[in-house]
Design brief:
single chain, formyl-coa transferase, domain 3, 2 domains, 11 strands, CoA-Trfase_III_dom_1_sf, CoA transferase, CoA-Trfase_fam_III
């Protein structure tokens, strides 16, 4: 089946984290993506196969050499878009910056960085955690006594990769209408700030406390948090609405108990202790059998090894072997993960002609 983006041609300058994830997403949905990798470039993780590299052909080019730059330029001149994640100015010094491709006026140039192309930190080193640190998001996540890194999901992949994808798709649509490409300046700090729109809106309206675990959605509310079970596993509870809370309480066997008013945050500690004691009396899987499939809004907290075997994930085909299926699921062009091949210089020269 042809992918939804099968007519899209993208050159990816190999990087780490958000750039390969964005390129993988495009390739999953059928785009013709070619990755240019630096010869002998080191890996952060010693992987025999990196899932983020799936679905696209690749070739090794030394962009510091005239021959390597010439071939890269030739490919980009025939492409619809570029993905790169170098520090600002690096591609320009190589003669491969956005202004070097006037002969391809429809080119969309996707630039993925942590700090953005401008600003006082633009040329400094950083990683997901340090980008999160200046956005207000990191300070809001974790227990009361210290913030906790939320893996690199929020910065690298949500605020980074997916904002790059969205920006590039918008620019590609515009280029097809106007004949003019543009630069997409995707900064993780910008993306996180945008993702925080609802939370900062609550804060501005006096409905969010700065301290952690004091709010509705940060683990402070006893009806939106995780509880330890008898087996040592955890149960996630998200019974925000009154009807879901009532169903949860009934199924926990607490319907006849005179519970503190959950609407008053002053009662949250006492209410949490009651729920914690009850949930700790049975195993995670016992509670899952009791609560899943109901409107109690509760679910077992599964490990990465367990998640592919959950009946809901299996029914939807969320995983293909050890890999995630392309997402989202399109009805006519659902996407298909694939593998790439290493191109020779000759094959690369003849590509897209």
């Amino acid at each position: 089946m042809t992918g939804a983006l099968s007519r899209l041609r993208i050159v990816e300058i190999a990087g780490i984290g958000p750039t390969p994830f964005a390129a993988m997403w495009f390739a999953d949905h059928g785009a013709q993506v070619v990755r240019i990798a630096r010869p002998g470039s080191p890996q952060i993780f010693p992987l025999s196969r990196d899932v983020l590299d799936r679905g696209r052909d690749w070739l090794e080019l030394d962009l510091k050499s005239a021959q390597g730059r010439d071939l890269a330029r030739d490919l980009i001149l025939r492409a619809d878009a570029v993905i790169e994640g170098m520090r600002p100015g690096v591609m320009e010094r190589l003669g491969l910056g956005p202004e070097d491709f006037s002969a391809n006026p429809r080119l969309v140039y996707g630039r993925m960085t942590g700090w953005g192309q401008s600003g006082p930190l633009a040329h400094t080193a950083g990683h997901d955690l340090t980008y999160l640190a200046i956005t207000g998001a990191l300070a809001a996540i974790g227990p009361r006594n210290h913030p906790v890194p939320p893996l690199n999901l929020i910065g690298d992949f949500a605020a980074g990769s997916m904002y790059l994808v969205a920006g590039m798709l918008a620019a590609i649509l515009a280029a097809r209408e106007t004949g003019k490409g543009q630069v997409v300046d995707a900064a993780i700090t910008d993306g996180v700030a945008h993702l925080m729109a609802m939370i900062t809106g609550l804060r501005v309206n006096g409905l969010w406390q700065v301290e952690r675990q004091a709010n509705l959605l940060d683990g402070g509310a006893p009806y939106y948090t995780c509880y330890r079970c008898a087996c040592g596993g955890f149960l996630a509870v998200g019974a925000i609405e009154p009807q879901f809370w009532a169903e949860l309480i009934r199924r926990l066997g607490l319907a006849g108990v005179d519970l503190p008013d959950r609407a008053d945050p002053a009662n949250w500690v006492a209410l949490r202790e009651i729920l914690a004691a009850r949930i700790a009396s049975r195993s995670r899987d016992d509670w899952a059998a009791e609560l899943e499939g109901t409107d109690a809004c509760a679910a077992p907290v599964l490990t990465m090894d367990e998640a592919p075997h959950h009946p809901h994930n299996r029914a939807r085909g969320v995983h293909i072997g050890n890999d995630p299926r392309p997402a989202p699921l399109l009805s006519r062009n659902p996407g298909q993960p694939g593998e790439g091949r290493q191109l020779t210089v000759g094959q690369a020269r003849n590509l897209w002609r």
